[in-house]
Write a structure and sequence with these properties.
heterodimer, A: 316 residues, mainly alpha, B: 377 residues, alpha+beta, 3-stranded antiparallel beta sheet, 47% helix
Chain lengths: 316, 377
């Protein structure tokens, strides 16, 4: 392997900048989207159209005291936000932004992202357990209870794409779609993917583990200041990863006319993120048992049947 | 299909899996200082014990230590979302006791303002219920329209929340004529916006599955627990004080009492949505038939009712309010008793929450439209 220390450092800084910048933009965007959907403007004061609002909030959050509850499991409590963020950070590595812009072309990049995504749930569980708060515990337990219901359909989605392409490499998958995007061949799968990914990122209407009206704030009830903002950072970075994966798997990655590849990738990613924000600000929350039966009884059969049909078509 | 598990275990069989969860007094789902101690088995509720009294202010005793006009503003602090109904109930009770006449114009303005207040209360409930179900946008949509009503009411009453507008024998001041046209304009615009509410929420499949068959109240239970208002009508019993014991000239208006047979959260939701439309009808009819005239009859400066007792029932946005006054002939009431709708309605919550998921219990609580200061009073 021919990787110089300098390029590794460069990519690390690049990813860190991307994670931070992405969170700043997404938090601002979410508040703007929410505002405009609710007949109001959203943040307007700090900077033009409030673009610097997140920065101001970030400074406030960083300067706040990190309150640790007396009875909390201190090591776990402090570890949880980091466990939640680091895997997401690492999952940025194999994500291709264009044919050339990619931190590391990994031949099992897809599997790596899926595996690291699971670790995020561990962070939520740790937070729920370590906080020693019943609401937080319920939130953490919910996060774990729902894993299988969405991970299996998600994995089958991904497997179908892998089967169509014959590669685990995200770059190869994107290149293989030169003839036509996968979403054209697998529209149903795309819908299943978007639903499972909304579940995976704990976004409304599936935000069980932080369900505000039920669990106060769920797993991060006891977190303040930086602990809270790390969870936030993880959530928004995870949205970015999930949308990035959707872009590569279904929307042909960086491919598009006229504009450079990186721009196309970002346009596609933020369109999908906008879709997820749209869900959040229009739907009420699903009940957890409804979500579980939806995952097992609808998403799983659909993705399985789709998988088998695809396999049959490919074999012909 | 009712999915609730029937708890076969009781609380004396404490296992390690059971725990007590304090829902409130500060919890976003209880809309006030209500505390519910939930005994849980995982996500299922074994038993729910509401703990009341965090907002107790001895409203009845306060009224007994004051003259009749002095007690008037206090009454409106009980149900801050339907303050005009309380205002009306107190005024009507004293008027009934002293046998004061009320001019027709005053009666009609009272009906118009009370019904507008009812709509604003139902709108806030609509938003808050969806907030309980996890949807945030409906809340702000409802508040946008509620704001218009508050502006209209502010203009005539002088306040935006705890109105104290009615006086014994009528109203303190007449209403500007252009106000009626503005109310009509609001109704016209609101009728156009009302389908949007249904588009956003009523037809939503997630909402439907969250509300359908959740928290079913049978008519027998509804009557037995003394429920009233939209909860009672959502269980198939079409009792409305405005229809069955008309006051303030409600017998003049042509309106329906919406009833839903299902008794679940969706039934209560539908009843309230239909009630909004009926209230709009009533306001339209009242404005259409309003005539010039005095708004206050001659009443003595010192209110000193004869010895006796009176009970006055009024339909507030939450149900039947009864104000019972015993007068001993002095200028202060001897005994005051408020029969408040929220208190009676809350009594069935423990029964409904048993065996339900936490999320469903909060949906049930949201569908009941509680005002906790009214419960505690």
């Amino acid at each position: 392997m021919n990787i110089s220390l300098l390029s590794v450092a460069g990519y690390l800084v690049g990813i860190a900048a991307l994670v931070g910048l992405n969170a700043v933009i997404l938090v601002w965007l979410e508040r703007k989207v929410a505002g405009h959907m609710q007949f109001r403007l959203g943040p307007m004061e700090v900077g033009p159209h409030g673009i610097l609002q997140t920065l101001a909030d970030g400074i406030k959050l960083v300067s706040k005291q990190l309150v640790i509850p007396d009875e909390a499991d201190k090591p776990l409590f402090l570890l949880a936000p980091i466990v939640s963020l680091v895997p997401i950070f690492a999952a940025m590595v194999p994500l291709p932004f264009s044919e050339t812009v990619q931190a590391w072309e990994l031949n099992i990049g897809l599997l790596l992202i899926i595996a690291l995504g699971l670790l995020n749930t561990l962070g939520i569980l740790l937070a729920g357990w370590g906080s020693n708060n019943k609401y937080a515990l319920l939130g953490g337990a919910r996060a774990v209870a729902q894993i299988l219901a969405y991970k299996i359909p998600l994995l089958i989605c991904v497997m179908t794409i892998i089967m169509m392409t014959g590669s685990y490499s995200l770059r190869d998958i994107a290149i293989a779609q030169q003839g036509g995007w996968n979403v054209l061949y697998q529209p149903l799968l795309f819908i299943v993917y978007i639903i499972t990914v909304t579940l995976e990122t704990n976004r409304s209407p599936f935000d069980f583990s932080e369900a505000e009206s039920e669990l106060v704030a769920g797993f991060h009830t006891e977190y303040s200041g930086m602990g809270f903002s790390l969870f936030f950072l993880a959530e928004y970075s995870y949205m970015f990863i999930a949308a990035g994966l959707a872009t590569v798997l279904f929307l042909g990655g960086w491919q598009g006319p006229w504009l450079p590849g990186v721009v196309w990738t970002l346009i596609k990613i933020y369109s999908i993120i906008f879709l997820m924000m749209w869900f959040r600000w229009t739907f009420p929350r699903v009940r957890i048992d409804q979500m579980l039966s939806f995952g097992w009884k609808i998403l799983l059969p659909i993705s399985l049947v789709n998988f088998i049909i695809t396999a049959g078509v490919l074999a012909l | 299909m009712n999915r609730a598990v029937q708890p076969t275990y009781t609380l004396d069989k404490v296992s390690e899996e059971n725990f007590a969860l304090n829902l409130g007094p500060q919890h976003p789902g209880t809309h006030g200082v209500l505390r519910v101690v939930l005994h849980m088995d995982g996500e299922y509720i074994l038993q729910a014990d509401p703990v009341l009294g965090y907002g107790h202010r001895m409203q009845e005793k306060i009224a007994e230590n004051m003259t009749y006009p002095q007690a008037l503003p206090y009454v409106c602090r009980m149900d801050y979302l339907g303050a005009l109904s309380y205002n009306l109930a107190w005024v009507l009770a004293v008027e009934k006791l002293c046998q004061f006449e009320v001019p027709e114009r005053a009666e009609k303005i009272r009906v118009i303002t009370t019904e507008l207040n009812r709509i604003s209360s139902h709108l806030l409930w609509w938003g808050a219920f969806l907030l309980d179900l996890g949807g945030f946008t409906p809340f702000l949509q409802a508040l946008t329209d509620r704001e218009l009503i508050l502006d209209l009411l502010e203009e005539v009453t002088g306040s935006r929340l705890t109105y104290c507008y009615y006086r014994f024998g009528g109203l303190p001041s007449d209403v500007d004529d252009t106000w009626f046209t503005r109310v009509m304009e609001f109704i016209e615009g609101f009728r156009l916006r009302l389908p949007r509410y249904h588009d956003l929420v009523t037809g939503n499949v997630i909402f439907y599955h969250r509300a359908k068959d959740v928290g079913v109240i049978l008519p027998f239970d509804a009557a037995g627990y003394g429920l009233s208002g939209p909860i009672l009508r959502g269980s198939g019993i079409g009792f409305d004080v405005r229809r069955h014991e008309p006051y303030s000239g409600y017998e003049r208006y042509n309106f329906e009492v919406p009833v839903d047979e299902t008794g679940d959260c969706l039934g209560r939701y539908n009843v309230r949505m239909m009630e909004i439309e009926q209230s709009l009808n009533i306001v339209e009819q009242a404005i259409g038939s309003i005539t010039e005239g005095p708004v206050r009859s001659k009443v003595p400066k010192l209110i000193k009712p004869p010895e006796g007792e009176v009970a006055m029932a009024v339909e507030t946005p939450r149900g039947q309010l009864v104000i019972y006054i015993v007068s001993d002939g002095t200028k202060k009431p001897y005994r005051v008793k408020y029969r408040v709708p929220s208190f009676a309605n809350l009594s069935i919550f423990a029964k409904l929450a048993r065996g339900q998921l936490l999320a469903d219990a909060l949906a049930i609580l949201g569908s009941m439209d509680m005002v906790i200061p009214e419960v505690d009073r």
